[in-house]
Specification:
- The protein is an all-alpha fold and 166 residues long.
- The chain is built from 8 helices and no strands.
- The longest helix is centred in the first third of the chain and has 18 residues.
- It is globular, with a radius of gyration of 17 Å.
- The protein starts with 15 loop residues before the first helix and ends in a 15-residue tail after the last helix.
Length: 166
């Protein structure tokens, strides 16, 4: 079981269960290994540069593309391999082993970066714009949009206003 927990990089960003050293009865070695893999990725490829990217107001395109190549651009882990553009899930987890805990682990570890703009620059808009297509879209819509999002070729954004907005 891989467990390499270090002090939080941002206040209150550390996942609660590992921080309290409470054993999650649902976690398996797969979950602990996924956390270690994502944490290593974040600590080596994102966190050292996050403040620079936040200040610049953008994540470099090659970093965003690499993020997608690692499977983080897949709209939903349970989408088909075709809709995921044939890319592996983060940590090369088998699709049939991915569960809600895996999704929470990835979210926990990305949040540790401490810069919301960086996380959104890596694909936050896709997390809002694409799940309705994955869940409720027609097969044609899913085929048209989801593989491109997974590869990083397409990006969705969120444009909203308040009901009384002008």
């Amino acid at each position: 079981m891989a467990r390499n927990l270090r002090p939080a990089t941002a206040p209150y960003s550390e996942p609660l269960l590992p921080q309290l050293d409470v054993s999650n009865p649902y976690y398996t070695d797969l979950h602990h290994n996924l956390r270690a893999w994502v944490r290593d990725y974040v600590e080596t490829s994102i966190a050292p540069y996050a403040q620079e990217w936040e200040t610049a107001g953008q994540v470099p395109e090659e970093v965003r593309r690499r993020h997608c190549e690692l499977g983080f651009g897949i709209v939903h882990p349970l989408t088909t391999e075709e809709h995921s553009a044939g890319l592996p899930l983060p940590g090369n987890l088998p699709r049939d082993k991915w569960d809600t805990w895996c999704t929470l682990i990835v979210g926990d570890e990305l949040t540790r970066v401490g810069f919301v703009g960086v996380i959104w620059g890596l694909g936050g808009g896709n997390g809002i714009g694409c799940p309705p297509i994955a869940r409720f879209g027609t097969p044609e819509q899913q085929k048209r949009w989801l593989p491109g999002v997974a590869r990083g070729d397409l990006r969705f954004c969120l444009g909203i206003t308040e009901p009384d907005g002008k």
